[in-house]
Amino acid sequence: MNPTSHVLEYRIAKLEGSKCDLDGGHPSALATASGQAAQMHTIFTICSKGDNFVAASNLYGGTYAQMAHTFPVRSLLCLSRTNTSAAQPFFFSRLDLSA
Questions:
Q1: For residues 84 and 58, is the Cβ–Cβ distance under 8 A?
Q2: What whole-number distance in Å separates Cα of residue 99 and Cα of residue 92?
Q3: Could you tell me which residues come within 8 angstroms of residue 22 by beta carbon, excluding any fewer than 6 positions away?
Q4: What are residue 50's phi and psi, to 5 degrees?
C-alpha cells in the first residue's frame, strides 16, 4: 500500500460521502496511475470471461488498442455501433481489428 495513494483514496471517498476510516483498510475509492489502468480495472471488475460490452466507435488510440487486442485475450469482446442507419439503430459489431 502506498500511503500517499491511500490518503488520496480516503479523501475522495470522504468527498463522496463514504463512512470509511483512515485505518489502513481500503477506502471506498480507487486511484490508478493511468486512464488505461482505470479502464482495465473497471472492465475486469464488472465483466466476466465471455462477456460482451459496448464502447463508442471513435476511441482514443490507446483505448482502442486495449479493447481490440488486450481484452479479447481475456475472452472479453468489445462491440461498437458501426451502423448509424435509423432503420437499424441498435446494430453493433466487433471492433475492426485491421487498424
A1: no
A2: 18
A3: 6, 7, 10
A4: 90, -5
What are the strands of the beta sheet with 92-94, ordered from one edge? 52-55, 77-81, 92-94
Q: Within a 13 Å sphere around the CA of 7, how many CA atoms are in the beta-carbon half? A: 2
Residue spans per domain, the chain: 1-31, 34-99
Return the residue matching grid coordinates 488498442. 65
Please tell me whether residue 80 adopts helix, strand or coil conformation.
Answer: strand
State the pTM of this model.
0.64
- List own/partner pairs for 34-40 with CB under 8 A and 24 or more apart: 35/63, 36/62, 36/63, 36/66, 39/63, 39/66, 40/66, 40/70
pLDDT in tens, 6-62: 888 888 888 888 877 776 666 678 888 898 899 888 888 888 888 888 887 777 888
Helix (H, G, I), strand (E, B) or coil at 53: strand
